[in-house]
Amino acid sequence: MPNILFDTPVPILFLTCLAQQVASQINGQRLSLSDVGKLRDDISTDEITPVPVLTHFDETLGRFPYTGLTLEGERPIEVDAIRHGGFKVVVAGRRYGKGSSREHSPMAERAAGVRLVIAESFERIYRQNADNIGLYTSTDMGLVQRIQRGEAVTVEELVADRDALSATIILAGGLLPFGQRYLAPDVLDMPESSPRSEGVGQTLFQKIVARQRLHPAGLAGPGMSSLPDGTPVGQGLFVRAHWRFIHEYYTGMAASLLKTHLDEKVRLVDAQQIVVFEDHTSYVEESPNHLRAGIVPNVVRMCEAQRAFVATHGLREHRTLTEAQAASDTGQNVAGISHAMMAEHYALPGQVVVGTDSHTPHSGALGCVAFGVGTTDMANAFVTGVVRLTMPGSIRVELSGRLAPGVTAKDVALHLLALPQIREGLGVGKVFEFCGESLRHLSVDERATLTNMVAELGGLTGLVAPDDRTVDFLLERRGVRFTVEPWMQSDPGAVYDAYLEVDCTALAPMVAAPGDPGNGSRIDHIRERPRVDIAYGGSCTAGKREDFDHYHEVLAWALEHGMRVPEHVSLLLQYGTTAVRDHCVSRGYEQTFRAMGARILQPSCGACANCGPGSSTDAAQVTVSTINRNFPGRSGPGQVWLASAPTVMASAVAGELVSFDELRARQDS
Hints:
The chain is α/β, with parallel strands linked by helices. It is built from 28 helices and 26 strands. Among the domains are: about 5-160, Aconitase, domain 4 (Alpha-Beta Barrel); about 390-505, Aconitase, Domain 2 (3-Layer(aba) Sandwich); about 510-669, 2-Layer Sandwich (Aconitase, domain 3).
């Protein structure tokens, strides 16, 4: 018999662009699709579950969905509104669930009583997270009228257009029940290297996946029990992960899920290949956001839950330090932002790396397949050693020519994000393969900026074929002598879904206006330059060695020319890892930073996660920042402009939005 989800009319919440229209539905008004006008696009997980909500990892999450949704400058959905409204279906526009990989978002929706989310399109991680926990999703807008008429809607029809593996997981009740049945190590066929079809070229991504693909024995279904070489786009599969990593916002939830589903039988597979990071919350005691919400004790409990999990299973752990702890550290503590640490210490070309952070693709700069997953995916990977993947298409990004001095990889990323085809969703779920003359001259740090921001491009991952620069990086930073193997590049005949070419000689410093990383434009095209209140340099995107070289270059130049950061500007610099800190200390950078009035912060996600100095505290404040996202509320209530390291420092010195070239021109005039 079919599994009926609805057969009577149920309350539907339309997430539109109008605050009053959403508020009226919360207050009991029932609308139809024809009543609502334009549905809101680009609803991020930061808006579904803002950062303070992430300290919860149980049914309490049901109080909070959409409490960060910002419409016309208002937040029309209050705590408990969804649960009290009895909404069973939510309807929205394109690219629903973009941004962070936080599984808290679909879990909050489901805990509030929502059973089905209908949107014009979904971001990959959000939809996979929803599949894993039993929250149904659909892109069929025709369902809205059917539900309102009381027609029967079955689970089987909701999964009819999904790939066979996703459908099987959904029908099994979620990933963990599926995993225990089909993914136990004793029922998995180990990786095999299938011969390629003659004349069929492969991308580097396809080659890496083929080498790590696993076959769940006994799993019936079209195209699942025997996956041919050259797995088609959209087909689900599993791969062995060389590295699995998690951080404090997810570990407590993962532990809870494992205990619920496995009781006392939790045994982690290849525990030595699991790395645990405490990297988001070391500045929580200085976070107005957390202090005002009264959730610092929640954060402490969350971290304690992670430490208990680490102790129970004997896992490798890195903890970022508070200011007081750092002051007494002998230099032995090795820590930093998780995905930056993975590139500095663990990931190697040709490997598969998964982490509970959407910026896991950072390590793709080394030529590995690195992608973000949700909590349930990671919990399942802990006990099986494998991770689910839906085979993506690829986009080849050719960076032709050479970047002009003062133009960085961050400017390239902001340029790509502003392209109409990217804003329309071309990159959603895709692999971005970066190549070209300009790419060959970029350092691994700069390449990591590109692969890191594939998350904002909507992609699954980004990667760069390893070369001599990769080899030099591994030797210099890690003491690893690595030989690039002949197969570690895409074949000449490899097939791509799309090609993007960027004439790097024509690029100039870019900025992205508040609200979305895709709001990019050349800085010299902006006539009205906003006054800057906060200038923040750091995060995984711009907390690397070369980023700090840029910060120092601008600030040292300003100091030599008698300039100082104006009193109305708060300048903050936050290291991405302890290795970056040590690099700066050894070069004497901190003297320049302090002379220019900067506050130097220990490694942590900090303001990018709205947890510490650098976040705004007032809606009127303007921040210029090197972070990767400026969704509403992401780094406080103020307005965040995204920019490169040189532009952020130049703006700090000028007190308004300017590039380094413009600052120098002002000095010379």
